[in-house]
Design goal:
110 residues, alpha+beta, 25% helix, Alpha-Beta Plaits, 4 strands, two-stranded antiparallel ribbon
Length: 110
């Protein structure tokens, strides 16, 4: 499998730069992160360098601490509700103060 996966750094950030460069529109917006449809990804890699938080990895290169996101990515397209609940739990466990691009940070004014 050489498709791409969006891992934990995207959670609560959701910068859409990857969506804008995807030539096949295989990146979908979820409540708390973006998801790459593994059945639609053409493995071009255009999204990877565009991610400002380095959240996109080739599925074979996802760091061990984020390995679960390979399954999360696929699950989103078969059971969106359960996947969104799982990602929300992950998001709720993250401290936004140590994540400069986290949209939940109270010191960021939009």
């Amino acid at each position: 499998m050489a498709v791409f996966v969006i891992a934990e750094p995207c959670v609560a950030v959701k910068d859409a730069a990857c969506v804008e460069v995807c030539p096949v529109d295989c990146i979908y917006e979820g409540a708390d992160k973006y998801y790459i449809n593994p059945d639609e990804c053409i493995e071009c890699g255009a999204c990877e360098p565009e991610c400002p938080v380095d959240a996109i990895f080739d599925a074979d290169s996802v760091p061990a601490e984020w390995a679960q996101f390979t399954g999360i990515e696929r699950a989103f397209f078969s059971d969106k509700e359960a996947t969104e609940a799982q990602v929300k739990a992950i998001m709720d466990s993250l401290d936004p103060t140590n994540r400069p691009n986290d949209r939940r940070r109270s010191d960021v004014h939009h």
